[in-house]
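User: I'm putting together notes for a lab meeting next week and I want to include a structural view of one of the chains we've been expressing. I don't have a solved structure, so I'd like a prediction I can at least talk through. The sequence is below, exactly as it appears in our construct file.
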Amino acid sequence: MADQYDRLIRLIYEGIRDDAHWAAAVTQIASQLSAVGVGLGMQDMKTHQFRGLTDHGIDLNLTPTYRRLAPTNKIWIEIGRRRQPLTDQMVMTKGTFKRTELYADWFKPQEFDGVMAFPVLFKESISAVVVAFRDRTRVDFESADLARLGRFAHHFGRALSIRLDREQTAADLIAANLMLDEINHALLLVDRDARLQHANRAGRAMLEAGKVARLRRGRLEIQDAKANSIVTKMVSGGRGGELPLFKHGPEQWVIQVHPCPDGVGLSGAGRMTVKIIGLNQYSEAPTPARLRERLGLTIRQCEVIVELARGGTEAKAAKNLGIGEPTVHEHIRRVYDSLELGSRAELFALLARHGFDTISRQKDL
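Assistant: Thanks for the context. Below is the predicted structure for the 365-residue chain, given as structure tokens.
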């Protein structure tokens, strides 16, 4: 008997990964309880949304009927209120129960006559129960039957809690991936040995093309040898940083490396995020209004930056704006101080990160 009990408990926990194990478990429970039907389900007690998880001997064609009647299910409502196991007779008399719409439309078509339910999990407004049914040929469930069902109920609760957490994690990951895939720049998650763990859509496309970065024996490698050496040292040392500009052919790129917070999502300790930003890719032309909105600069500072982003020199910016060259230089100095920049290269890298197109081919880069 002990071996049979242990095998049943194993089935319950194996059901975390495979519904077939839970189906086998409730079939065995039905046999032990002399029940014609057993099911595991969840119901939101606020919205009455129902989700069946597994069942034995229950007509699933009647699930829409149950969903319609869920708000009037006094047995489940009482379990949600009391948070304790109940039989139908603990909630109302048999005569009263048989006059309910739930009995007429859901119980009677399946020849169910008696019911008991044992709560397995309460999570926010969610109430999950394992429920068993008997027909008229057997006596109604009693407290001793609830006790037998309770031997398995808390295991279902623990297993279900693990499954729900996994489902939520998977849903969060899908949502995160969708958000990451909307980013036009390549995002790559690597370990300290630069082995790739995850990439967004732009990152996967970049690696497949092998244009700027590629995988070499599963490790991230930047095609520019000097840039690759710097990035490799950042990653292996667990140091964040930015490689302001490097050229690959006629194009210019910025690489940012950031350590991932411990235990966040799939990252965990030791993971690094590598972001590769292509200047002038997927970008819009900077305007004074857009710069002011995104960077918080004065309108004159923004006008100066627009001139530089278009490829102009300080002298050309002064001529186009009708101001002196020393004034242009002072505006640039204040922009650098405000944004904590040290060079024109860092300025263009910042503009690229904010989605601006720049013509970054001046001699002073």
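A couple of points you could mention at the meeting. The chain is about 45% helix and 20% strand. Residues 288-353 form a domain with the Arc Repressor Mutant, subunit A fold (CATH 1.10.10.10).

User: Perfect, that's what I needed.
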